[in-house]
Amino acid sequence: MPSRLKLGYVIVALTGISVLGCGDDSGSSGDSAVGAGAGGANPPRTGSSGSAAAGRGASGRGGAGGRGGTTRGMMGQMCPMTEPSASESCMPAAGNCMFGTRICDCIAPGNTWACWDPSQCPTAVPAEQSSCPVVGMTCRPMRGNCTCRDTGWDCGNQFCPAAEPALGGQCEAGTGTCMYGARICDCISSTWSCWNPADCPMSPPADNAMCSARGMACMYPGGSCTCGNMSTWRCGRGVMNDNDAGI
Q1: What is the Cα–Cα distance from 192 to 158, expressed in whole angstroms?
Q2: Which residues contact 98 (CB under 8 A, 6 or more apart)?
Q3: How far apart are the C-alpha atoms of 8 and 203, rounded to whole Å?
Q4: Half-sphere exposure of 2 (CA within 13 A, CB side)
Q5: Each residue of 82-120: pLDDT tens digit?
Q6: CA atoms within 13 A on the CB side of 44
Q7: Burial 14-39 (b: 16+ CB within 10 A, else e)
């Protein structure tokens, strides 16, 4: 009997161990199922919902942008129903107005309308301050951006008088220089400066050495030297004008 009891205890013990093992497997499986359910339900659906929300947000921003465009339109040029006359007053603002093929813009000073047809624009860049048809009209000929002003066309280039201007005379700076025989004139700080390239030093001058003609530019191997506003020379990096340059 004692032997049988011990055998029974052993069987019962083994059965309990098996039951406990099954319970652990079941619990683990349950945890796994819950984890999968949480992972499967939340991240993809949240991401999808987030994308939809982001889409609505983008749409909302687009709507706000549309309202912004309307605001910018209200702040831009106010166009009359019909083409205005040149004497009519207006308020300068961004943009212009179209009336058929004609363009109207409110110009300052004067705050009056300027209207023109693009066919009136030159096809090539006109001479600086040459006559133009409508003050205030703007044109973009090849390689140019020009405005018709009281003084004539203004395309941003240097206006060259018929004769060499007096040194120190008033001028309006622009791109380029003016040639008068062998002499060159340039508008420097709103005053004329003229020189003859033959007057350039034979060898590159030292930086900060004194010079006489502001704006004077002299060419040397490796670059140029220019007489600056302080009447001192300044040479490009490629110009060998420093005894220590080779060290």
Answers
A1: 11
A2: 104
A3: 119
A4: 0
A5: 999 988 999 999 999 999 999 999 998 889 999 999 999
A6: 6
A7: eeeeeeeeeeeeeeeeeeeeeeeeee
